[in-house]
Amino acid sequence: MRALLVVDVQYDFLPGGSLAVPEADEIIPAVNDLIHHFDHVVFTQDWHPAGHDSFASSHEGHDPFDVIEVDYGDQILWPDHCVQGTRGAELHDDLDVDRAELIIRKGFRRDIDSYSAFFENDGTTPTGLTGYLRERGIDTLYVVGLALDFCVHWSAVDGSEQGFDVMVVEDGSRPIDTEGSLDEAMGNMESSGVKLVTAEEARAVAAV
Ligand code: VGL
Ligand code: ZN
After folding, report:
1. Residue of 115, 154, 174, 182 best suited for mutating to test ligand 1, as the one with most atoms within 8 Å of CB
2. Ligand 1: distance of its center to the CA of 190 in Å?
């Protein structure tokens, strides 16, 4: 059984947002089309408390995109984004969120960032998504959303490692592409067995 995973399509990641992903608005029609074609749809929502440790503003003397060392390894410092309850944290109004069977919120612990829909960045704190999908009998995931080289990438890699068949819909996603992050993401996804498909291919499969 297949599900569509719609990752972090929130205003702060769209043009005009605080961590805008270039051309992110271009994916909205394709994402919505897939939302309407899949029988099962799960969303994720980046959901940080104000003053989150992943924000550059929480670290004196640091700027956005600086990298610092934390307990669980390197942490890129981001502009403040997706703060709980703000407009920037809302899922894009044009998305048919009514079709969501589950919305996973992540990054709500002040001291851990969470890119993946499955595990926080310490690599061990689960979000519960694996159990949810297994109990529902879902074994195949099509992943769209933002950003291709961060939350889409880590969700896809972790999903694959959790035993799901994972397809990333390349034209349903856009990267931030900072310091080689896109090349690294593409390499990691390939070596984890994640496949790349087009929205058209995903739509054809969903209709079967
Ligand atoms: C994301 C950076 C920080 C993402 C979330 O959704 O890809 N990137 N928080
Ligand atoms: Zn975030």
Report:
1. 115
2. 20
pLDDT single digits (tens) 114-156: 999 999 999 999 999 999 999 999 999 999 999 999 999 999 9
Residues with CB under 6 A from ligand 1: 8, 13, 46, 78, 115, 146-147, 150-151
Q: Flag whether the pTM goes above 0.90.
A: yes
Round to whole Å and give the CA distance between 181 and 198. 21
Tens-place pLDDT, residues 49-107: 999 999 999 999 999 999 999 999 999 999 999 999 999 999 999 999 999 999 999 99
Angle between helix 181-191 and 153-161 (nearest 10):
20
